[in-house]
Design brief:
Number of helices: 5
Shape: elongated
Number of strands: 2
Helix content: 40-55%
Low-confidence stretches: 119-124
Strand order of the largest sheet: 1-2
Strand content: under 5%
Oligomer: single chain
Mean pLDDT: 78
């Protein structure tokens, strides 16, 4: 092989440089966000925690559509309990105001719930 040693050495250097970040961060995980127990209890009372974690954006979109298009203000969950369809009430049940923000920042998801109106009714 012509210049085989240089090619193999270059490949080894390339692979080493490419994998350094993976090995450097191996076993290091970011701590998850701290969750307010009052807010979590309220969210779990709407639907079970596993459902809320997986599908809360779809639920809130459904609430928005039902409220705006049909004027419906009450949501009946899978257990037959009634709740007001209000993102504002969810926000008010968190005294620090950081429940949604901390989780969405941790997962790098942009919150668009207030893109039409600010909480409290003021238009953007």
């Amino acid at each position: 092989m012509y210049k085989g040693g240089k090619i193999i050495a270059s490949l080894i250097i390339f692979v080493a440089l490419f994998t350094i970040p993976f090995f450097y961060n191996l076993g290091k995980a970011n701590a998850g966000p701290e969750i307010n127990s009052e807010q979590l209890e309220y969210m779990q009372s709407i639907e079970p925690a596993i459902d809320m974690k997986a599908s809360h954006p779809q639920l809130f979109d459904q609430w928005r559509d039902e409220f705006v298009r049909n004027g419906k203000t009450v949501y009946v969950n899978s257990q037959g309990q009634s709740f007001d369809m209000s993102i504002e009430k969810l926000a008010e049940s968190d005294p620090t105001g950081q429940f949604c923000v901390s989780c969405h920042d941790y997962t790098a998801v942009t919150i668009t719930c207030t893109s039409c109106h600010e909480l409290g009714g003021a238009t953007q």
